[in-house]
Design brief:
The chain is mainly α. The protein contains four helices and no strands.
Length: 102
């Protein structure tokens, strides 16, 4: 497992997700564009982590887990992700697609 998930990858991913979580209090009270901006920041930061790890840091299971984490974190902070994505012509699971390279 240490080869697949080196400590530096885990730490960098945790730092990105921690920063995302810190930005979420009050997120349900802002315009959709600000919610999308928070999602864009976390996805671009995860893209950078992926790139720094040879472009293969996150495989299918990890990608699905990260996307679910983003959705769940938003939901826990009062964002209705299904309604948010629907208002913008996206499917529920397309929230990160615009920016995601991993």
């Amino acid at each position: 497992m240490a080869v697949l998930f080196p400590e530096a990858l885990l730490m960098a991913t945790d730092e990105v997700l921690d920063a995302f979580e810190q930005a979420l209090p009050g997120i349900s009270e802002v315009a959709d564009e600000r919610v999308f901006a928070a999602v864009e920041r976390v996805v671009l930061a995860l893209n950078a982590v992926n790139e720094a790890n040879g472009g293969a840091a996150f495989e299918t299971d990890e990608r699905e887990t990260l996307c679910a984490y983003i959705d769940e974190a938003l939901t826990e902070h009062g964002v209705d992700v299904v309604a948010l994505t629907a208002r913008h012509g996206l499917g529920q699971y397309q929230l990160t697609d615009r920016w995601r390279d991993w």
